[in-house]
Design goal:
By secondary structure, the protein is mostly helical. It has one domain. Helix 3 packs antiparallel against helix 5 and helix 5 packs across helix 11. The longest helix has 29 residues. The protein starts with a helix and ends with a helix.
């Protein structure tokens, strides 16, 4: 597993794609937070990172599938997936190595954004007048959400050998899980089904962590979605050699 993890990390950072994705993420979020007047923190009048945590998942919804799309799709296209699966390497080790590498890359995307917290901390009046519990709860939620996004993107990458198709499938699945379920729950015609459906939406689970109180139910749910898509991906890999 560690060998796969190192291979994925080295492969990612030896390619300009890694730096392009990181630059796009940080530039897009930075401009939304500090430049665009409708979302600029400088126009809020109080030290708060709510805008960042509201916007970041929507940017990640596109960028995480861009990170994961090649993980298994490229292996299938080049024929190396079958070769790897015939080695003394279990499907689980292969899958976990790739998943953890992709999750680590998502964490690497988020790490530089801690400068935003420092900036708001310093700009607060008085200095430090920021709800740190809510900030770190939101960061925990964003990190777990990134893990879910990586698991879903990995599953999408296992379905097709074309990276573009894997990217589109990944974005579609994440859109459905993060935005679609919550939107469906707001339909009046669903009646009593609306509340249970809204609880299944990833955005509801993510926002709950951002309130500053870390509830184990939210952690378990996000972890369960990760495991579910990893199981689905392992099942998909098993069909390649059976």
């Amino acid at each position: 597993m560690l060998a796969i993890f190192r291979k994925e990390i080295n492969s990612f950072f030896s390619s300009p794609v890694a730096y392009i994705i990181m630059a796009v993420f940080l530039t897009a979020i930075g401009m939304m937070l500090w430049v665009f007047p409708d979302t600029s923190l400088l126009n809020e009048g109080y030290a708060d990172l709510g805008t960042f945590f509201n916007l970041a998942p929507y940017v990640m919804l596109f960028l995480v599938p861009a990170v994961t799309m090649r993980s298994l799709a490229e292996e299938r296209r080049s024929g190396t997936l079958e070769w790897l699966l015939t080695k003394p390497l279990s499907r689980r080790d292969l899958l976990l190595g790739k998943f953890l590498a992709n999750w680590a890359l998502v964490a690497a995307l988020l790490l530089p954004t801690l400068i935003y917290y420092y900036s708001v901390y310093v700009l607060g009046s008085p200095v430090g007048n920021v709800d740190s519990a809510a900030v770190f709860g939101s960061y925990l939620g964003l990190l777990l959400l990134g893990g879910v996004f990586a698991a879903v993107g990995l599953f999408a990458s296992s379905l097709n050998e074309n990276q573009v198709v894997a990217f589109v499938l990944g974005v579609f699945l994440l859109f459905l899980l993060y935005i679609g379920l919550g939107a469906l729950a707001r339909l009046e015609s669903l009646g009593g089904m609306a509340e249970p459906l809204s609880r299944l939406a990833l955005d509801e689970q993510y926002r709950a962590l951002g309130r500053g109180l870390v509830d184990s139910r939210n952690l378990v749910y996000l972890g369960s979605v990760m495991v579910l898509f990893l199981i689905l991906t392992e099942w998909q890999l098993s069909t390649r050699i059976n």
